[in-house]
Amino acid sequence: MILRQFLHSDPVGISYLFGCGGKATGAVVDPVGDIQPYLQAADNAGMRIHFVIDTHVHADHLSAGRALADAAGAAYVLSSAAGVSFPFKGVRDGEVLPLGNVTATVLHTPGHTPEHICILATDRTRADEPWFVLTGHTLMVGDLGRTELAASAEEGARQLFRSVRKLKGLPDYVEVLPGAYAGSVCGRRLSGKPWSTIGFEKRHNQAFAIEDEAEFVRFMVAEIPPAPPEAAKIRAANSGITAAAA
């Protein structure tokens, strides 16, 4: 297994390169900014990028996903539920993206956005059990992502509750690799530590620990962080509706 984490400060976010070193196949998740660091990291690891995955249509930054996919000759991957105006590889819940001895299983986790997905990674040279989950803006260290684009904040929170139950079903040892950390506008109590485990978040993440749906909805709608000022323009640009965000 090859895994590289890229921490960004403007905007605050996290990208990943992971895959199979032995079979030289990899994927990049949630790329931001200049595409050269991802291409160079893959080259340094002796890997070809086969998939570029955005966990959702972002509203806090311009995605580098399509540009990186074009440069690498890779498939650009989004949830099949994504409403965008350009061709992409649509994936559904339970679908597996093959990466040599590594498998990347898609988990549809709506709530932050309706099309949000997480990626569950397994290294079959080590074990048949999953090793880590790339959680985007659904589950972060210390909090869950604010709800966006649902018919109401309450409906978004109900969707998120069901997604949280899916993630709670993973073994406690599974590592959580989120799409943001402290300083991001996508959560309220985010840690500066950019990784965790399912078990630790069950015990110490207040939102993730709530078991009752009504209590969860009340908690999630009580302090919704404001969206970035240019959120609508950025999401439109990432959807292909406009050429670029102002």
Automatic annotation (TrEMBL):
GO terms for molecular function: hydrolase activity; sulfur dioxygenase activity. Residues 12-180 form the Metallo-beta-lactamase domain. GO terms for biological process: glutathione metabolic process; hydrogen sulfide metabolic process. Keywords: Hydrolase. This is MBL fold metallo-hydrolase. It comes from Bradyrhizobium centrolobii. The lineage of its organism: Bacteria, Pseudomonadati, Pseudomonadota, Alphaproteobacteria, Hyphomicrobiales.
